[in-house]
Every structure is written in C-alpha cells, then in structure tokens.
Amino acid sequence: MSVLINKNSKVIVQGFTGKEGTFHAEQMIEYGTNIVGGVTPGKGGSVHLDKPVFNTVKEAVDKVQANTSIIFVPPAFASDSIMEAAEAGIKVIVCITEGIPIEDMVKVKNYLKSYDCTLIGPNCPGVISAEESKVGIMPGFVFKKGRVGIVSKSGTLTYEAADQVVKSGYGVSTAIGIGGDPIIGTTTKEAIELLINDEDTDCIVMIGEIGGQLEADAAHWYKSIGSPKPIIGFIAGQTAPKGRTMGHAGAIVGGENDTAQAKMKIMSECGIVVVNSPADIGKTVANLLK
C-alpha cells in the first residue's frame, strides 16, 4: 500500500503543453505514472505526448475519470488552477509552481475547506510512491521500493534522504515533498499522520527547515499518540542568520522557536531521533530497523 498516489491513480497535468509540463510529463510517463491527459485552455481536442488535451479540469474528470492533478502553471494563474481542480472533483492536487503570492494562497486555503481533496505544495517536488507512480519532478531512479516513508520541506533533501535509505539496504514507500512556502496545503503533521497510518511504512524520515511551527506541531502530535513507528528528523538551516530568508520563502527565522536548534530540541524531547547532518540519515534508518 502507498499513500496519496499509486499505480491506479489517474493523473492529469495542468499546464500540459508548456515547456515544464511537457518535460516532466514525459519523465512521469517514463516512470510508469498513469497520465490520462492534460489541461491547456484553448488547446482542448488536440493530442500531446499521445495523450488527450482538455480545455478544463472538469472535462478531464468527465471524459477520462481523472482523480489526481499536477500543476505546472505560472504563479499568477496557479491559485486559480488549484481551485479549478478542487471544484472539478480532483482528490489529490500537487502544485509544483514556485512564487505564488501569499495572498493568493490564503484564498486557496480557505476555498479548499469546502472540498474533499488534498493539496500538496505549492513550491514542492511532489509525491512519489516508489516504483508505482511519480506525481512530481523528483529523479525517479533514486527511489527504490521499500518501507521507509519520507516527509520533507526541501526537494533536494528528499532525494538525498531517499538515496541514503536505498544505499543502506532499505527502500521507500512514499515520499511527500510538502513544499517550502509559508502557506502550503498539507502540513508536516498531516503528511506524517498519513505515513503513521500506512501499514506498509515501518519508519519515517522527517526533513524540516528553519521558520514556522510545522515541525514542532508534528513532533508534539507524534508524542501525543505514542506511535511505535520511529521517526528520524533533520532540520536544514542550522547556520542561517536570524531574520534572513534562506532559499524557500517559508524559511525565515522569526522567533526563538523558529531556529534549527530550537526545533531539534523540541523534536528530540518528543521522541524523534534527531540527526545533525543529512549524511547521517541512511545509517540511522539502518540502525533503527535492524
């Protein structure tokens, strides 16, 4: 079993015929993802990468029963694309777009409360269920099937963690790149909860960053449920100066609890096995799962 997506997920690409949409759709199809079509307004009725193109998401849902969407739409229009997908009945929406205005995401977050769907991102690498389905931009060859789940704010550290897990003799069930923006659809805690409840995940790697409260919230929740599944945690940005945005728009230290050191302390106190370097993730997983 996997979470969010699997080999049966019917995936459409919003922004299908654009440069990014085309490139990553090709990669996803090659990985084995069940891409059933795409959406580019004004190009409905045409064919792209041997898949049908639709003018609207609703049309894609009606005609090819799409239930999952990945969005490669420019920042100015991406929030509308997310809301359109939700309204059309898409259950899992993955938004890759970086640079969506915070004001737009406030509206999206509020809008999605009326719909039964899960938004991953924006500004994220997506989701991959190893050797089944890739709805994202991650290098698929890194991910081998196994029983370690990954939740990460950072795209590149998602791949790094997966590579280390595999090289340690284990594999990945599902990796969820939640995104690094201040306002995202699925929080660290919500992603961790999906993997805690997944019977085919034995261990979780949680990668966070400075800024915000997501990791602390996840850690307190993990402590409260007393789950036997171990979590290995790492926080990026340990040397970041206070008050400066580092990389992601959400990675900015506001108060004393936003620092890497404060987050690592909270995580450790809540029973998470904290590593000081991403280089230690693989061997720590191996030690815990022996």
Automatic annotation (TrEMBL):
Cross-referenced InterPro entries: Cit_synth/succinyl-CoA_lig_AS, Citrt_syn/SCS-alpha_CS, CoA-bd, CoA_lig_alpha, NAD(P)-bd_dom_sf, SUCC_ACL_C, Succinyl-CoA_synth-like
Record domain CoA-binding: where: 4-100
Full protein name: Succinate--CoA ligase [ADP-forming] subunit alpha
Keywords, comma-separated and alphabetical: Ligase, Nucleotide-binding, Tricarboxylic acid cycle
Catalytic activity: succinate + ATP + CoA = succinyl-CoA + ADP + phosphate; GTP + succinate + CoA = succinyl-CoA + GDP + phosphate
GO biological process: tricarboxylic acid cycle
Pathway entry: Carbohydrate metabolism; tricarboxylic acid cycle; succinate from succinyl-CoA (ligase route): step 1/1
SMART domains cross-referenced by the UniProt entry: CoA_binding (SM00881)
Residue positions binding CoA: T17, G18, K19, E20, K43, I96, T97, E98
EC supergroup of this enzyme: ligase
Record's function text: Succinyl-CoA synthetase functions in the citric acid cycle (TCA), coupling the hydrolysis of succinyl-CoA to the synthesis of either ATP or GTP and thus represents the only step of substrate-level phosphorylation in the TCA. The alpha subunit of the enzyme binds the substrates coenzyme A and phosphate, while succinate binding and nucleotide specificity is provided by the beta subunit.
Molecular function via GO: nucleotide binding; succinate-CoA ligase (ADP-forming) activity; succinate-CoA ligase (GDP-forming) activity
Domain of life: Bacteria
Active site: H248 (tele-phosphohistidine intermediate)
GO cellular component, one term: succinate-CoA ligase complex (ADP-forming)
Record EC number: 6.2.1.5
The keyword Lyase belongs to this UniProt entry's keyword annotation: no
